[in-house]
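Q: Give me the 3D complex with zinc ion.
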Amino acid sequence: MKKIKLTDILESIEFSYVINDDNTFSLRDCQDCNLGNIENDKFDIDKNLAMNVIDRIEIYINDYYLSDIAERLRTECNDSISITENYFDFLEKMQKYPKVFKDDIDTMKTFVNPNLLDISDIKQNAKIKLKCFRCGTRLQKSAIKDYTYFCPNCCEDFYRFEQETKKGIFRCLSKLMQIG
Ligand SMILES: [Zn+2]
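A: Here is the predicted complex, encoded as structure tokens.
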């Protein structure tokens, strides 16, 4: 099966994440709801990270995945499953219709066994100590070619020089303006 990243799952349910000062991991709700104070939870970045996060976002997996799959089982396969069934039961049902659920089967496998999820990009970002010049959030590696950093709080990509010299540039500019 193809590698699925924990961050891909998060993106699909409209979440991002930040690395805290103590090197723990916290979720960020891109819809700005912070239901159940989910953003305040801290997770250690270790081998159990994916398992603990998948556990915490269960309600979102129900909303974004299970209800959709139950609906497609009904409409496209003339079959049914209760939304209260566990991931493994979902997986077994889906495997009966591999054509309908091609890509989703791999995703469901990762819900059954979160250790299958790739967290290498999170571990990589946890090494970046530089903070956003604008908001102080720890930066991550940008996913966009040519940009260097991404601020998960500003939701913006930056070039390295912007982060490292922004304050310096402003100082120079204001000096020049005064002279001019
Ligand atoms: Zn920022």
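A quick observation: The pocket of zinc ion is lined by residues 132, 134-135, 137, 151, 153-154 (CB under 6 Å).
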